[in-house]
Amino acid sequence: MRTSLLSTFFLLFLMLLSTSPSVVSLTCKPTELAPCAAAILYSLPPSDACCSKLQEQKPCLCQYQKDPSLHGYVNSKNSKKVGTACGVPAPSC
């Protein structure tokens, strides 16, 4: 129940961010990283879809890192593990 609630919260959080013009540009959409939610939240191995989306969103990671509402996710230990597993290093902004 708790994992389902956290997953639902994470996805809703990403959806809300995608509607905020101050957070998202035309190409940077945090919701595109939804396939990575389980890997980041529960320390599971990232899926191929997650790695693909992470590669696509790589130019946006600094923007996400600077956003106070995303900072905790981007800088989390699990997020860094997912990035390493997908061949996407943590951004140095």
UniProtKB/TrEMBL annotation:
InterPro entries according to UniProt: Bifun_inhib/LTP/seed_sf, Bifunc_inhib/LTP/seed_store, nsLTP2
Keyword Signal: yes
Example of a GO biological process term: lipid transport
SUPFAM superfamilies noted in UniProt: Bifunctional inhibitor/lipid-transfer protein/seed storage 2S albumin
Entry-linked Gene3D superfamilies: Plant lipid-transfer and hydrophobic proteins
UniProt GO molecular function: lipid binding
Signal peptide extent: 1-25
Swiss-Prot/TrEMBL keywords: Lipid-binding, Signal, Transport
Residue ranges of domain Bifunctional inhibitor/plant lipid transfer protein/seed storage helical in the record: 28-93
PANTHER family named among the record's database cross-references: BIFUNCTIONAL INHIBITOR/LIPID-TRANSFER PROTEIN/SEED STORAGE 2S ALBUMIN SUPERFAMILY PROTEIN, BIFUNCTIONAL INHIBITOR_LIPID-TRANSFER PROTEIN_SEED STORAGE 2S ALBUMIN SUPERFAMILY PROTEIN
Entry's family note: Belongs to the plant LTP family. B11E subfamily.
Identification of the protein by name: Non-specific lipid-transfer protein 2
